[in-house]
Structure formats: C-alpha cells, structure tokens
Amino acid sequence: MEANIASRIPILLLCALLCLLLEPIHARSFTIDYENDCFLKDGKPFRYISAGMHYFRVPRMYWKDRLLKIKAAGVNAVQTYIAWNIHEPEQGTYNFDGDADLLSYIKLIQETGLLLILRPGPYICAEWDFGGFPPWLLKNASIILRSSKDPVYTSAVASWFKVLLPMLRPYLYSNGGPIISAQVENEYGSYFTCDQKYLEYLKNLLEEYLGKDVILFTTDGDSESLLKCGTLPSLFSTVDFGPGSDPAKAFAVQRKYQAHGPLVNSEYYTGWLDRWDIKHQTTDPTVVANALDKILSMNASVNMYMFEGGTNFGYMSGATFGSNIYHPCTTSYDYDAPLSEAGDPNISNKKYDAIKTVVNKYLPDPGIPIPPPTLKYAYGKITMEIVPTWSFKTQQMSKYPLTMEQMDMYYGFAIYKTTIHKTPSLKGPQASKLSMPGVRDRAIVFVCQSRQGVIQRNDEEKSLNIEVDKDCPLEIMVENQGRINYGHMNDPKGLVSNVTLDGVVLMNWTVMHIDAPPEVLTDMPSDALWRNDEVKVPAFYKGTVPPIPKGVAHQDTYLLLKGWTKGQAFLNNFNLGRYWPVEGPQITLYVPASAFIDDSENVLTIFELDHSPCDRPENCLVEMVKTPILNGTVHVEY
Questions:
Q1: Rg (CA), the chain
Q2: Three-class SS of residue 348?
Q3: Is 187 a residue of the active site?
Q4: β partners of residue 215
Q5: Which residue out of 88, 127, 185, 187 is catalytically annotated?
Q6: Each residue of 358-395: pLDDT tens digit?
C-alpha cells in the first residue's frame, strides 16, 4: 500500500501543479452584480477608473510610454475606440500593421497590468474622419448609415465584424486577456434614425463572435430622450457627462433606464476638442478633479475622455456641422488632456497631478515612477525650395462631376478640369459667373492656369465672377477638409453637384487626385497640370531637415510655419496633417520622432495652397522648434 502511494506521488503533484496553472484562467470572470449594483471581477466587487487613449492617434513607438504614464496615475483600465477606416481602407482589404497593429496594443495594455474597455463601433464619432466609417461606403450615394433598413450598410458591417471580432475573442478577460467589456455602437440615442432593430442587429453580431462572456454596454448623454433611442433592455446602459454636470442628476437619468447595476460614466470629459477658427479649448484642472471626486464618491466607475488625446495625423481629423456652418477639426487632438499631444504630463495646468491625487483616494497608488516627458529637439530652420513641375498618377473622366468617393479618391485633393468655350460672337473679354453650389469643402479656381479665387462650403454665395477671353481650361482644386463625424454624416467630398457658367452646365471633366507628395507617386505622366514659380500656389515645397548631432537619437519636435498659410505637411512619407495658422488656434504641427529616418536624409515636403513667404529665397523657410503653439489667435470667432 505504501509503495502504491509512493508511486502515485509524482502523478498527484503533476495534477496539483496543472490545477494551479489552469485555475486562474478558469476562475477569471467579469460580470455585473445587479443586486448589489457593482461589477464583479473574479467574483469580488470591483470598479474601474479608466483612461481614454486611442492607439490610432499615437505612434506605435510611444504606446508603451503612454500606457506607463497612465498606469502611474493609478488608474486600472484603458478605453479605446477601433477605427474601421484605418483597418479596411479599401473594401475587403485589411490593415493591422504598424500603427494599426491593434492586437499588439491590446497585448501592451495587458503587459502594463491594465484592463481594457473596447468600443468597436462600427461608428465611433471621436472627431475622427467620418466617425471612423471607411469612406468607400459613400460610393453608394443613397446609403442609410447606422440603420437596419439598408442591407448594403448592414452587410458591410457584418463583413467587417466577421474579420475583427474573432481576432478579439482570445483577449476577452474570461479567456485570459484584458477586455472586460465592449460597447454596442456609440451614443446612438443622438442619431436621428432611432432604430432599435439596428442595435439588436449589432448586439447579435457581437454575441455571435465574442460569445456571452463579455459585458455589452451602450453609452449616451445624460438625458432621457437620448437613452430612449440609444438603449436596449438586454444591454447594460451607461451615460456620459463632463465636469459641468451634477453627477447625482446624471446618474439619476441612468437609473431610469438601468435600474440596477453599477453607476458608470463612460465619457468624463477632461477637456474638449479644437476646431479651426474657434478659440483653443481648456478646462480648469481643479474643476475637473473636484467633479471626478464627486463621481467616485458615489462608487461609480468612470472613463476619462481623454487622458491622452494624441494627433489626427494625415487626413483623419473630422468635422462638425451646425447652424449651417461646417467646422473642420484641427490636426491636434491635444484635448487639454492630462497627457499632452506629445504624451507629457500637462505641466501648464497641473491636470495630471490633480487627477492622480483624486484617483489615489480610491485606488491604491501603484508606486511606480512617472516616465519623463519625451525628449524634444529644435532642429532649427529649414530652407524650402519649390518643386517646379508635378503631376498625378490618377486620372478619371466623366460627363458630369463625380464625388471623390465614386472615383476611389478617399482623402486629400481632387482636381476637376474641363474647357471653357468663349461665345464666338462676343469680342474682347467675356464677363461670366461661375457657380458651384456643391463644393465639399474648399475649392481653388483657375482659368487659363490663372488663379481666380476660392469658394468655400460655408460661403453664402458659392460663385465667382470671372472673365473669359478665349477657349481655355477651367481647373478646380477641391480640398476634402474632413468628413462630418457627428449627426447627419452622409458627407461625400469633391464636387457633389454640377458646375455652371452663366447658368449653363459644364460637362466633360477630367479628374486628378493628390493625397501624397510627388515622390511617393509612381507612373507619373510627364506633363504637369501647373508650372509654378516661387510665388504661385498651389505648389509643393521641399527641404532637408538639418542633421541631429552624431550619436543622438531623433527626438520629437514641432513644425512652425511662420509666413505660410494653409496646406499639408509630410516628413519623409509620413503625413503630419493639415496646417492653417492664419485661421488658428493651432499654429504648430506635432512631429513625432518616429517620423524621422535614422542615418538618412530627412525630407520635409509642404503642399501650400494659398500663399508662401517665398517671394524672396531667404524668406522661404520653416522651423522645427521645441514648444508647441496650440492657443494662437483665431481669424474669425463664432
């Protein structure tokens, strides 16, 4: 008998070891205790204090730095949207590489010891172009977004979720990952369709691919009308509100639609977004911290939107539309958040410290050092030279103007070209009126390669008086300044209606596309649309960034475009975003160290649309400086 027992000891020890290894995974659960109005993590009462950070607004090389700074503040979770448009840029073509490597971001969150609240959309708002929808959806001009009534839309969502959600399932908390909950749509109660069959459709998709081991929730503003259209009885309902709201009143609204379960503010606003032509937005850190304290004193869970705002690199800033005015958002999404656009604790207003102090009242201080601010370097002045001849890879022809989306031109600029024919019976210059009521969003008009003026979406009269002295080309460069991300979002770009000359519809258009500097394009035709000199615009300008001292790694910097007016800037092949310092409030562009190439020449390219300082070569300069300017004066204040 004793020999028998002895022979079984190794097997018993192995079984015990396997139980120890497997038990934590099987015991992992994140649920809602509706009787005691709280979350349960592994069976124990739990509440989260979360930090909002979007992976698609922060260069991948900085994800870990930002997450460590978030962890050091004492929070225990991170919340992120998933931007459909960066992952499926062309229908059926998927991108999860580089800065779009979502799974690597999720793994980093777990390695940092944080939980993850996921907001997969398909609509995210976020002041992101088209609310995160891929613009190819607008190839169908009559598409009904965010509704169960359009099978074209719902089938596109189903195809996307079929790719995305199975990738996420292994990272659910119950499967050993950090994901504790997933949002169904986003603030749907604010949308005019009010289609609860659509919410049910999305819920079924999420449960099909994620299972029922993850909490599915909705988020809406703190009013009954919003929760009425934005919730389902089978989904957990949360609210969002900022420091200007009374938490007791806001949560009372949640209780009318979510009688039991934890109180949750899914978007507690630490700052606010910036738009061109509107004063830079800031919030008092003391007010933000005191209101956060009130929320947490009610045993509520909360996500701070944003904790790290980041940047709308490229063409990804969205726009709002209200009172018949189109407002494009700035490239910076600094948000006056606790961590700045460059990921530094907000020194100027002490918001990071104020929030950390409050959080540490309710969660134990992790006791880890706050990583230092990222290094900044003033690369100095850069001499720019005009690119004298440039042309385009993409050309399409149509009888009447097509939208950019209909021509697979999703971002950047479209140049519409036709020929104006002078009335033969008239002698001398012919005064004419050129009208384009459907410009989206800003058009520069050329006749005979001579700049005539600008027509903008907000103009009351979208027309120009021109003179026609002979048959010559009409060229209209239309800039897509960002699709509407909130409200009525069917916002195709380019020319969305006919162009007329003295009431006569112009036809037979050739359309070209610009979304990158000329050196990025291939198979370019030899003839250029315009031949520019140092004072004519639009034009590309190029310059070489001064080398950094030997042995020193490249560092973050800010691009200051003094004397320049409006356009797009690129470092190497990285699109830094839109600049528009004459409108304000953003004056500098954030340039992350990741955009530089080590041991190589770093080329800065600017596509200037309106005016350059290059009338004299010695003035044709830009500068890379160490300090951002986000609060410049604005040209017009609405």
A1: 27
A2: coil
A3: yes
A4: 181
A5: 187
A6: 999 999 999 999 999 999 999 999 999 998 777 776 78
